[in-house]
Write a structure and sequence with these properties.
Layout: E1 5-10, H1 16-27, E2 30-33, H2 34-47, H3 58-64, E3 70-75, E4 80-85, E5 88-89, H4 97-107, H5 110-123, E6 129-133, H6 136-140, E7 146-151, H7 154-167, H8 174-190, E8 203-206, H9 212-226
Parallel strand pairs: 1-6, 1-7, 2-6, 7-8
Antiparallel strand pairs: 3-4, 4-5
Helix pairs in contact: 1-9, 2-4, 2-5, 4-8, 7-8
């Protein structure tokens, strides 16, 4: 059976990763969460005082890029691959609101994007991959057989993110999460290098009123058409 490349782009908290994991499991494909890669770089920058709410030492971070080793390692207990930075499992550390506040700033740096895009393209060279992010269908895999663009209202996305963070025991207000979602939307769509845009041949999926099951079934049918 032929294998294809599935590129999923869209705004933050649209459930890209959830959908991508479901598809990868159903198809026996490799799943790559590119957002985790950018979060890992942002986490590294925070640990080394290269980024904060008021400061970004882009040159300092670029100089440190050779010292940033990223890899995914599959966790059979959880059923998905976790993010490792320099051989340390940082899966939980990169999912905080603090990292969310910094990740779009770090992702604006062209050298960071170039390093990660090169790694992502290498991961997908043999197809049979589901990758989600902001520029997968436009930059990483412009020739992907199936491109999806995920969207939902900012309040819907903020509520999903808020519920997720509360469930993990984080103390946060809905207003803070909504502000973060809207700030990330602005930065992601306005950056000079690889801004978040819908590829001309991408299929838009607005999941504001879809359940995870409905969304999965809708997209799985799109995949079957391509296969």
């Amino acid at each position: 059976m032929k294998k294809i490349t599935i590129a999923i782009d869209g705004f933050s908290s649209t459930g890209k990763s959830t959908l991508a994991k479901q598809l990868a499991a159903a198809l026996g494909y490799v799943y790559v969460d590119t957002g985790a890669m950018y979060r890992a770089v942002a986490y590294f920058a925070m640990q080394h005082n290269l980024v904060s709410e008021t400061h970004l030492d882009a040159a300092g971070l670029v100089a440190q890029l050779p010292n940033i080793n990223l890899r995914f390692q599959f966790n059979p207990t959880l059923g998905f691959a976790e993010m490792y930075l320099n051989n340390e499992n940082i899966e939980n550390q990169i999912r905080t609101i603090e990292v969310s506040r910094m990740v779009s700033k770090v992702a604006e740096i062209s050298e960071v994007r170039a390093k990660l895009v090169e790694q992502q393209q290498a991961m997908g060279k043999d197809k049979g991959i589901v990758m989600d992010g902001r520029d997968i269908g436009t930059v990483v895999f412009p020739d992907a057989e199936l491109k999806l663009f995920m969207t939902a209202s900012s309040k819907t996305r903020a509520q999903r993110r808020f519920d997720e963070l509360v469930e993990k025991g984080q103390h946060i207000t809905f207003e803070d999460v909504l502000q973060n979602v809207e700030e990330r939307d602005y930065i992601d769509t306005h950056r000079e290098d690889s801004p978040l845009v819908k590829a001309d041949d991408a299929i838009e999926v607005d999941n504001s009123s879809l359940t995870k099951k409905e969304q999965f079934e809708l997209v799985l049918n799109l995949v079957k058409e391509k296969l």
